[in-house]
Amino acid sequence: MNAVKKFKFYLFILFLFSATAFGLFYFAITTRTEGQYFDSDKVPIYYTIEGNGETIILLHSFAVNADLSYRRPGITQELSKNFRVIAFDIRGHGLSGKPHDPDKYGLEMGYDLIRLMDHLNIDKAHIVGFSLGGFIALKLAPRYQDRFESLSLICSGWEKPDESKFTDVVARAKKELNSGKGIDPIFEQLVPDNHISTPSHRFWLHFMTRFLNDRFALIAMLDRLQDLYLTEQEIKSIHIPVLSIVGDKDPFLKGAEALDSVALNHKLHIVKNAGRVKIPLRDETTKEIINFIKDNNNSQAGLNNFNDNQYK
C-alpha cells in the first residue's frame, strides 16, 4: 500500500470513528426517559415519575431538559432510591410545548409546577431547581409556601433587580439567537475572567441552542426573564427552608451569598474547586440535597427505609 492509499485509508478510519463517536454522543443526549404529558393552560408539559416516598420535583437548567440536568449526572437515579421523583421539561425546552409568545413565559414557567402538582393531586413537595429552574422556584416560593416542603437551589442565587447583570446580557443573547448563533453572551458575562470557557464547553453551548432547542422559544423566554426577579422584601418573606449549593468557581456564587445574607431560613453549601459544569457530577451535591430534605421533612412517609448512614 503506497503512501497515498495509506493516507486515504487512515482518513476513512478517522472519519468512521468520528461519525460513530458523534452518533453515540447524539444518541446519549437525545434519548429520553419514557414519560407522559399534561395540559398546562394549553401548553403540553412532559414529565416523568419514578421511585416511592416523599415527593421531590426537579426543575432543570436553561436550554437543556430534565434528563440532561439530572439523569445524565445520576441525580435522578440516586434520589429515586428513597423518594418519589418527578421531573418535567420546563416549557420552551425538551419535549414540552415551545410557544413563541413571550407572554407564555415568565411566571407561567412557574405556574406549570403548581399545575403539575394539582394534576397529580400533590399538596406539598420538596422542590429542587438547577440554575434557571432555581430562579423559577425561588420566584414561586413567597407565593406558594404552603405547597413547598423545602427548596433546594443548585447553581442559582439572587440579585437585587436594580443591580442585576442580566439586563444587558439578555439583550445580547437575544441578538445572538436572532442571528442564529448560540447563547455565549449569557455564559461569558457571568463567568469570571480567570474561568474562561473551554472549546468543548463552547461547542456544547452552540449544540444546545442549534440542535436541542427552538431558538425562537428561547428568545420569547428571555423576553420575560425579568419577571423572575425578586425584591429583598420577597426574599425575607420566605419562611420555608432553603438550601443553596454552589461551587466556589461558579458565577452565581455571589448571588448565592447575597441570598444567604437576606433569607431568614437559608443554608449555603459551597463546593470546593467546582464550577457549574462539575456541580451536578459531584456526589457531594446529591448527598447534600438528600440530607437537607431529610432534616427538613415534616412527614416520615416514604423514609421508613431510608439508610441514615448512606449519606453521612
Give a written overview of the molecule.
The protein is α/β, with parallel strands linked by helices. The protein has a domain of 196 residues: Rossmann fold (3-Layer(aba) Sandwich). It is built from twelve helices and eight strands. An eight-stranded mixed sheet has the order 1-2-4-3-5-6-7-8, sandwiched between helices. The longest helix has 28 residues. The protein starts with a helix and ends in a 17-residue tail after the last helix. About 2% of the residues have low confidence.
Shape: globular
- CATH topology call of the domain at 34-164 and 231-295: Rossmann fold
In the sheet with the most strands, the strands line up as: 1-2-4-3-5-6-7-8
What is the count of DSSP helices, taking H or I runs of 4+ residues? 12
Can you name the CATH architecture of the domain at 34-164 and 231-295? 3-Layer(aba) Sandwich
Strand content: 15-25%
> How much is the average pLDDT?
85
Give the CATH class of the domain at 34-164 and 231-295: Alpha Beta
Secondary structure: number of strands: 8
Taking all Cα atoms into account, the compactness measure Rg is: 20 Å
The parts where pLDDT drops under 50 for at least 5 residues are 300-306
Backbone structural class: alpha/beta
Q: CATH superfamily membership of the domain at 34-164 and 231-295, which one? A: Alpha/Beta hydrolase fold, catalytic domain
* SSE sequence, one letter per element: HEEEHHEHEHEHHHHHEHEH
